[in-house]
Design goal:
It contains eight helices and eight strands. By secondary structure, it is α/β, with parallel strands linked by helices. The chain has a single domain, classed as Lambda Exonuclease, Chain A. The strands form two sheets. The protein has a five-stranded mixed sheet with strand order 2-5-6-7-8. Strands 1-4-3 form a three-stranded mixed sheet. The radius of gyration is 20 Å and the shape is globular. 27% of the residues are buried.
Length: 232
């Protein structure tokens, strides 16, 4: 790994926390876990929401979702910079000279408050009936907060998840109805550097650490190794 450029994202850190073995294989050898089902509809909703919020931004208006939930903030005004932060190949970045590695993330949107502090806003579309803040969502917003502060911005130490939940009670009628909710959570960027450092140090090892005990892929592999039919 010494000759490779190390670049990690919130998804990379989440994989590291789930299983350092799978993380090492992914980043060092390109051996990835079998992919989950594609979420093309989620990606389409994400793009439509960015377009909608950008329309409000251009008009210097606050989206109804913020007003309805009494969030005293406006959309981050710098569209050019936001476009860079949104880009999966660029994002908002921090390079650590001591580690020789980069941490980056592609934000959906950013809120700016009257005191000049900012906070990440992430869109989540789901078929679930209620919003749920998974650990990976928390890690994602913690990482964005960390990156914003490393880039010289003051943050509120809060993050926002805009949930767009399919409202199945209203039928289809040639369009998918959504119920909108926004969840405010406390962000804690203090732990991100240590997670980042630990992940980089694992990548620099010559061989992968063991699978996590909770790793379903590691358990599957152990079961497969134990089958006598595969030993013939």
């Amino acid at each position: 790994m010494a000759d490779k450029v190390i670049q990690l994202s919130p998804n990379s850190l989440n994989l590291f926390l789930e299983c350092a073995h799978c993380f090492w294989l992914d980043k060092n050898l390109g051996i990835k876990r079998p992919p989950a089902y594609p979420y093309a509809l989620n990606l389409a909703v994400d793009e439509l929401l960015k377009e909608e919020f950008d329309t409000y931004r251009a008009k210097k208006l606050s989206p109804p979702l913020l007003e309805e939930n009494n969030i005293k903030a406006h959309l981050f005004a710098n569209q050019k910079l936001l476009n860079q932060w949104r880009n999966n190949l660029a994002g908002i970045r921090y390079f650590d000279k001591e580690l020789g590695a980069t941490l980056f993330g592609a934000v959906d949107d950013v809120l700016e408050f009257k005191d000049g502090k900012i906070a990440p806003l992430d869109y989540k579309s789901t078929g679930s009936t209620t919003e749920k803040v998974y650990d990976r969502f928390q890690l994602q917003l913690d990482t964005y907060t960390f990156l914003m502060e490393k880039n010289g911005y003051q943050t509120t130490h809060k993050g926002y998840l805009a949930f767009y939940l399919v409202d199945k009670s209203r039928g289809f009628v040639d369009r998918i109805p959504f119920r909108k909710e926004i969840v405010e959570i406390e962000t804690n960027p203090a732990d991100i550097y240590e997670i980042f450092k630990d992940a980089v140090n694992v990548l620099k090892q010559g061989s992968p650490p063991p699978h996590s005990q909770d790793c379903q892929f590691g358990r599957w592999l152990e079961k497969a190794k134990g089958l006598s039919i595969l030993k013939k």
